[in-house]
Structures are given as structure tokens and as C-alpha cells.
Amino acid sequence: MDGFTATRLIRTWESAHHRRSTPILALTANAFCEARDQILAEGCTEFLTKPITRPQLLNALNRNGLSVPTIAAQPPGIAPSLDVTTRIEQEIQQRRPKFLEHRRTDLGVMQRAAAQQDFEALKAMGHRIKGVAGSYGFPDIGADGQRLEQSAQARDLAAIHLAIEHLAAILAQVDQAA
Q1: Residue range of the domain that includes 137
Q2: Residue pair 170/144 in contact by the 8 Å Cβ criterion
Q3: Handedness of CA 113, 119, 124, 126 (dihedral sign)
Q4: CA-to-CA separations, 115 to 7, 72, 119, 146, 160, in angstroms, rounded
Q5: pLDDT tens digit string along 12-70?
Q6: Has residue 68 been placed in a domain?
Q7: Cis geometry, peptide bond prior to residue 23 (ω within 30 degrees of 0)
Q8: How many Å apart are CA 125 and CA 103, to the nearest integer?
């Protein structure tokens, strides 16, 4: 189910059970005013745009009266005595290799989708990459995802191939730096 459906279900349940509204923070790649208005009209408390930084998330949680709970079971390799921000940073660092591995896999999928002129698949992949790359500290990959999404929207195969080649070059640079 999408976030709007989940929000409506939560709000309906809260109303039926006479519960206080739970703060719901929407996370979106769409920063336009229309999206903000729709998100708030659907019952979300606030919205944040991707890519999101740790300070933005923690500030939004604080603004809405939410505190980050102490995590009972720590992820492997993360010390329980560290503050939340440090733990989040360590967890992101641990997940970066998997993120990059997925982008390498994406290259082959993108090439096949481009060969088949599957613009919807390319647009969806670009959108996903655009939204998550900055969170892992790869703004160049996020910008490439945006180029891919826009190129697929425009059905511009030449620009799609350039975006794919650029992503491959970025990943090669990351591999050489490692």
C-alpha cells in the first residue's frame, strides 16, 4: 500500500478508537507546493523531501514531539553507548557497499530496459536512485538518477544512454578510490 493509504487507515483507526493523532512524517522526492498540499490534506503531519540528512530528520522528529528511542538490539558492529547520530552514521557507512552493489546491478537492468525502450522502468529506476543516493552520501549518483528519470520521461534514448554511461563512470571512480 502507498503512504497515503496507510495514513488514511491510521487516521481512521485513531478516530474510531478515540486516539490522539500520531505524528506522520511523509518522505517524498516531490518538493512542489501541490505535493505538500496533498500530503497535508491526506493527514500527514509534515513532509520532508529527499535526499534527507540526519539533522533534517532529527529536527523533524523533535518538532513533532518524537524522540529517537534507545535501540535495545544494536545492529552488528555498532556500539550501544554511542549517540543516535553516530549510530545512524555508522549504519549508513555499513550499508554503502550494498547500495553501490545494487547500483552496479542496476546498470545491466538499465541497459536492457534502454534496449527494449522500456521508458517506464527507466523512469522508475531513475526516480528511486535520485531519492536514495544522497542519503548514502552519493549526490552525483542522485543527480544521475534524476537525469535518467527526466530522460526517460522525455523518451530521449541518447540522453538515457549518456546517463547510464555516466553512472558506470561514477561507479568505476568509486571502485578505484576504494
Answers
A1: 84-177
A2: yes
A3: positive
A4: 39, 48, 10, 20, 10
A5: 999 999 999 999 988 887 667 787 888 888 898 988 887 777 788 888 888 888 766 54
A6: no
A7: no
A8: 10
Q: Are residues 88 and 172 in the same domain?
A: yes
Task: Say if residue 51 is in the same domain as residue 102.
Answer: no
Confirm whether 76 is domain-assigned: no
Whole-prediction pTM value? 0.60
d(CA 23, CA 36): 16
b/e sequence 85-98, b meaning 16+ C-beta within 10 Å: eebbebeeeeeeee
In a domain, 77, yes or no: no
Among 11, 29, 63, residue at a domain's last position: 63
Question: How would residue 172 be classed by pLDDT, with cut points 50, 70 and 90?
Answer: very high
Handedness of CA 88, 9, 124, 51 (dihedral sign): negative
What lies within 8 Å, CB to CB, of 56 at 6+ separation is 48
Please count the other Cβ atoms lying within 10 Å of the Cβ belonging to residue 42. Answer: 17
Judge whether 128 lies within some domain: yes
Q: Give which of 42, 41, 47 is closest to 6, Cα–Cα.
A: 42
pLDDT category at 126 given cuts 50, 70, 90 is very high
Query: For the domain that residue 110 is a member of, what is the CATH number?
Result: 1.20.120.160
